[in-house]
Amino acid sequence: MNAMTQEETMPEDGFRKEESDGGGGTVSDGKTVPAPEKAEMTAGILPAEAAPVEGSLSGVAAEGGGEAPEEGPCTRLSRGISLLLHPFLVPVYTVLVLLFGDTIMSNIAAGLKWFFVLVVALNTLVIPAIFIALMRTFGVLSDLSLRRRRERMLPLAVVAVCYLVCALMLSDVLVAFLIRKFLYAALGCVLLALAVNFCWKISLHLVAAGGAVAMLLIVAVSRFGNFTGTIVAAILLSGLLASARLWLGCHTPAQVAAGFFGGFAAASLVMLAL
Asked: Cα separation of 43 and 257, whole Å?
């Protein structure tokens, strides 16, 4: 009879049920288990909600980025667009337009033009890229894409110094005054991004794109150049770049818009002030 009584009172799953003692603990087999001890007992059994891991995409999403998209044609295309329109390459593209487009600098000797391109590429592309690669090698950066906001401070400072040095190198070259104005405008964009980065993540790609569009537009309005088609193409490419950054989950729409219009405003103010 005792055995039958035990079988009747035993739950169907073969385990005894735990009941709450009303104080945050549970009663199991006649013993009260406090809540902290219960948490320890179940830690290895019940999955807990994980907090954002340092350097993970969850941590990036908390700063304003989104989840990484699934691999596919659109993702690969977006990565290609982001690479071709990288902020390090935009200054080189802009200087090529100024030197080889329909501007007042088009009559400069070809050798001098390529010398200017080399100087700009060295200071705005090669040297900053080397510094960032070294910072990644020594563990200062978690990745080369600078997805985490707090890791952007030192690279942005390095880029600002490189832009300033490049502008000063061309300060005595009268025929390079448009390039010099552009470099100071680009420096203004970098300083804007650096200031915003203290409290918010902004799209560096779109800051560079907005600055380039502003510079080309002001040069055209000032009658130093005639490249309406280039300006239209730059605006369309900026929209394509914004779509790519959103697709990759690197930024929110607000960060992308703030980047473009912030870069446009900063470059415009510097160009008009010089």
From this structure: 44
